[in-house]
Amino acid sequence: MRDLLHAAFDGLSDNLKATVDTVSVLSLVGALVQILPAIASLLTVIWTALRIYETTTVQRWLHGPDAAASDDVAGEGRHDP
How far apart are CA 29 and CA 36, in angstroms? Predict the structure, then answer.
């Protein structure tokens, strides 16, 4: 079987091999393009959750009123002169 495959591929021209390689790469890109929106959406949800978690309000809910004030977790209470 292996010798048969080698014989089949050795008989192909370099132009045909390059064409098949190009089609393969385009298929890969097409698959990734359909996956990328889902990945981007997931990363957006994670980023937004982290940003919400950083807020003073959420930190007060989780750690009490003193934690958010003393840590200034989100930097919302900081006033630089």
Answer: 10
